[in-house]
TrEMBL record:
It comes from the Archaea. It comes from Methanogenium marinum. This is DUF2513 domain-containing protein.
Length: 119
């Protein structure tokens, strides 16, 4: 499955919109399947952007279920920088297609664009 930075941003915005005391599972986002969302939740968790529990079938690395507990400090920094749709579109245009770079490398690159006032 290919990483979708727009979905990553939407997941973070959805988490932020929820009550902070509530764990989140079964999130629904228009035009995305449960499997796509679960995969991206797993990526965010692995990158330290959120704290979540990921459940995979035995012997599989494909996430089936998840429970999101919170956004980390790094996740809030990303969200604060790119909550504005205009900035988000500019950043994705500057970066373009970055292929299969790991998310833990992509997010700092987005943050550097803000710091350097490239966007």
């Amino acid at each position: 499955m290919k990483r979708d930075m727009d979905l990553i941003r939407k997941i973070l915005l959805n988490i932020d919109a929820c009550e902070h005391n509530d764990a989140i599972s079964g999130m629904q986002i228009d035009r995305y399947s449960h499997q796509e969302i679960a995969y991206h939740v797993m990526l965010l968790n692995e990158a330290g952007i959120i704290k979540a529990k990921i459940v995979c079938d035995e012997g599989s690395k494909i996430p089936q279920e998840y429970v999101i507990y919170s956004i980390t400090r790094e996740g809030y920094a990303f969200l604060d920088a790119f909550a504005d749709e205009r900035l988000w579109k500019k950043a994705t245009k500057v970066i373009g297609d970055i292929g299969d770079a790991p998310i833990h490398l992509v997010i700092p690159l987005f943050m550097e664009l803000i710091k350097a006032h490239v966007i």
